[in-house]
Amino acid sequence: MKVAAVKKPGGLQNLVIETRDDPKPKAGEVLVRVRASSLNYHDFAVVLGGIPTPDGRIPMSDGACEVVAVGEGVTKWKVGDKVISLFFPGWQSGQIEAAGFASVPGDGADGFGAELVAAPETAFTRMPAGWSFEEAATLPCAALTAWRGMFVETKTKPGDWVLVQGTGGVSIFALQFAKMAGARVIATSSSNEKMERLKALGADHVINYKETPEWGRKAFELTGGRGVDEVVEIGGPGTMAQSINACRPGGHISLIGVLTGVSGEVPTAALFSRNITVSGITVGSRRHQEDMVDAIEASNMRPIIDSKFPLDQIAAAFAHQASQKHFGKIVLTI
């Protein structure tokens, strides 16, 4: 089979295409033919060598696949079923019990940047009915992260105000889920062109954060002085203070990303004085993903795909991600 592999010490120049032996499913496993994957910031960190992995690690946590063989004892799937991967294959339901990425595809284990993958039958959920493999491949990391932040850690409901940051995968899904729930959305971007696209997707208000450095206060004003109910926070320490400024008393912040750094100063007094809750979010469980797929099927939602690259051009796909010119998800066809 053909695979992408990250050679030490990492970097796009060390992302190579190789041929390896086809895997075979063990008892309790399924063999899937990977049809598509999609790029996430976590994958980018692995490929660049920022997250240490063994030499030759196959990257990519997302996979949309067709079952082509089943091992002994498999009952959940049959040949021909269309499935999507889990970011945390061992987290089936309930509260997460162990931090770390030892089982995460493309990190602690080989991922879906390959034509074939053998994995436990519990490492997949079904795809949304009627979706293409390319569409479904956008869901396991970015969409589920937004879903858990908005509907598990808090309960976004009709009429709520949701603040989303930028135009990456998580933020676009958060906007779409918010509108699906009947919520109102304030979106930030540094690109006036992208702001128009955000409005076309349903954003009720947009803020250029470069032109309006105090965008948190502006968002608060746009709600009529009430404040937003939910912030999908992808920036980290560089944006946290503005997110707090945007929140209503008793609001919720889903802390998801660290695009501005991994540590920094946080105005803790503002957090507790306004009774704001912050939830650290790292994707979600199998049950969360199943619930998300059910909700997607009950709507007419479709993912926003920026561009598609064949597996042979995986380095070019990551270079496009690094350019920050994309709007929505970048997909690999395999």
Automatic annotation (TrEMBL):
InterPro entries: ADH-like_C (IPR013149), ADH-like_N (IPR013154), ER (IPR020843), GroES-like_sf (IPR011032), NAD(P)-bd_dom_sf (IPR036291), Zinc_ADH-like (IPR052711)
GO molecular function: oxidoreductase activity
SUPFAM superfamilies: GroES-like, NAD(P)-binding Rossmann-fold domains
Pfam family, one: ADH_N
Domain Enoyl reductase (ER), residue spans: 10-332
Name of protein: Class III alcohol dehydrogenase
Native species: Hyphomonas polymorpha PS728
